[in-house]
Design a protein that fits this description.
The protein is mainly alpha-helical. The protein is built from 10 helices and 3 strands; from the N terminus they run αααααααααββαβ. One of its GO terms (molecular function) is zinc ion transmembrane transporter activity.
């Protein structure tokens, strides 16, 4: 793949944001896990578990951006390795679901058991965690609008921010009521939120892997625009999909009539796809005879 594709790759442009976020989250994970073990707080441990998921997810996202922009030396990856980012996002989904399941199992195992929780350290660590998450969200916000990979990391950190709020709320309730049950209850709420965010992200990942048309693309409008081009009589075998975030791909066959040259029609069609529909990589075939061999294809 050419260098131009690497420069246009959405995830690669925001790699430094992922790196800074990874460093902050990894450092805080160590702090939260240590305090969670010392205080016996399930809310802290569940949030630390989610932080561990963040560390893994952000590390995978960083690795994916490096792989995605690496030149292919085998000659076999004709689309490059851009899908590595989508696979990393799918891995993030699995990690998030695993963490949510662990929290729920741990909360269930503690039912009816008197557990002493130290609220003071919970409040300190919860506040520190919220600060780390807010800074991380500010770093990743721009990239989350462009890259599915960065969006996965952003959602992970967002869930962590809610987790930190949950830790603070649990600490206040334990401190004011003297009941440690609030700790487990808030941990379950965190787990539910994490699971929902994971499922929503997973749906987007499956849409890309299933080569669905981009959600923001109006297929009917695209077809009308191509069919209305001067010299185009018909359109068939249209396929549009997302290779990775920010890289939409299309293929189509244009049946043309006498008049404009094939080069003129191709140039106009490419411009319409890029300027009106955001598709910069399109492979178009021009056909003069509508009864060509391609109509015999079975898919």
């Amino acid at each position: 793949m050419g260098a131009g594709h690497a420069h246009g790759h959405a995830g690669a442009r925001h790699r430094w944001r992922l790196a800074v976020t990874f460093a902050m989250v990894a450092a805080f994970f160590v702090v939260e896990l240590t305090v969670g073990i010392l205080t016996g707080s399930l809310a802290l441990l569940s949030d630390a578990g989610h932080m561990a998921a963040d560390v893994v997810a952000l590390g995978a996202a960083l690795l994916a951006t490096a792989i995605a922009t690496r030149p292919d030396l085998s000659g076999r990856r004709t689309y490059g390795s851009y899908r590595a980012e989508v696979l990393a996002s799918g891995f993030t989904v699995l990690v998030m679901l695993g963490v949510a399941a662990y929290i729920l199992v741990e909360a269930w195992s503690r039912r009816g058991e008197p557990v002493e929780v130290q609220a003071g350290p919970m409040l300190v660590v919860g506040g520190l965690g919220l600060l780390v998450n807010v800074v991380s969200l500010a770093l990743l916000r721009a990239g989350a609008q462009e890259s599915l990979n960065v969006k996965g990391a952003y959602l992970e950190v967002m869930a962590d921010a809610l987790g930190s709020v949950g830790v603070l709320v649990a600490g206040v309730l334990v401190l004011t009521t003297g009941s440690s049950g609030w700790d487990a209850l808030l941990a379950v709420a965190i787990a539910a939120f994490v699971a929902v965010r994971a499922l929503l992200l997973g749906r987007e990942v499956l849409a890309v892997l299933g080569q669905h048309a981009p959600a923001q693309l109006d297929i009917d409008s695209l077809i009308r625009d191509l069919e209305s081009l001067p010299g185009v009589r018909d359109l068939h075998d249209l396929h549009v999909w997302t290779l990775t975030s920010g890289m939409e791909v299309a293929t189509a066959h244009l049946v043309v009539e006498a008049g404009p040259t094939a080069d003129d029609i191709l140039a106009t069609a490419q411009r319409v796809l890029q300027e009106d529909h955001g598709i910069s990589h399109a492979t178009l075939q021009v056909e003069v005879d509508p009864d060509t061999e391609c109509h015999r294809a079975t898919w």
